[in-house]
Design goal:
Blueprint: H1 2-21, H2 24-33, H3 65-68, H4 71-81, E1 104-108, E2 112-117, E3 128-133, E4 138-140, E5 147-152
Parallel strand pairs: 1-5
Antiparallel strand pairs: 2-3, 4-5
Bound molecules: zinc ion.
Zinc ion (ZN) binds near residues 125, 128, 141 and 143.
């Protein structure tokens, strides 16, 4: 019994003591002791897709998100570290009904954007998904009549903009035969 208790006590001391003793100073020393740890690029260093690759984990360690995440996930994490909401996850303005003169703006960095309307106030009706794109940015909810407009915030010279995407053309609807002044 005595032996067992001693063993437990030793084990406990070994497990707890280093964590207690490790102060700020030793942490700095430990960091510096790793000579060629690659610098993690911050948000402003990201210029191309190739910059969105992490350094990976040091041998013998489990990688953290910032070490191993790549691509858009990495961009999102880097943004969060600096308080930048890369994907703009805030809900749309549901404090008022959008009108043609004053539509609810939907920011988009891509060719098209879907927005879910639940009416005013929010959750007044079931969600209805509205599709907007750069050629036809304005859409109206068929349930509550709220008007939404896509605000393009992506790159201007991405070579995709005004040309029809890969030769694809939107199928014609009755709206195409309505006089433009009724649009
Ligand atoms: Zn609606």
């Amino acid at each position: 019994m005595f032996l067992q208790r001693t063993a437990v006590a030793v084990a406990r001391r070994a497990a707890v003591a280093p964590a207690l003793r490790r102060g700020i100073a030793t942490t700095v020393v430990r960091r510096n002791a790793v000579p060629d740890q690659p610098k993690i690029k911050t948000l402003k260093d990201i210029k191309t897709e190739e910059d969105l690759v992490g350094p990976g984990a040091r041998p013998g360690t489990v990688p953290t998100d910032i070490e191993q995440a790549t691509g858009l996930e990495r961009l999102e994490i880097l943004g969060k570290m600096e308080g930048v909401d890369v994907f703009d996850m805030r809900p749309l303005d549901a404090s008022r009904l959008g009108t043609l003169d004053n539509p609810v703006l939907v920011r988009s960095a891509g060719e098209e954007q879907y927005a879910g309307c639940t009416g005013v106030p929010a959750d007044s009706h079931n969600v209805i998904w509205l599709r907007m794109d750069r050629q036809r940015p304005v859409e109206r909810c068929p349930e509550c009549g709220s008007v939404y407009k896509m605000e393009y915030v992506g790159p201007q010279d991405d070579g995709h903009g005004h040309d029809h995407h890969h030769g694809w053309e939107e199928p014609k609807t009755f709206a195409d035969y309505v006089k433009p002044e009724y649009w």
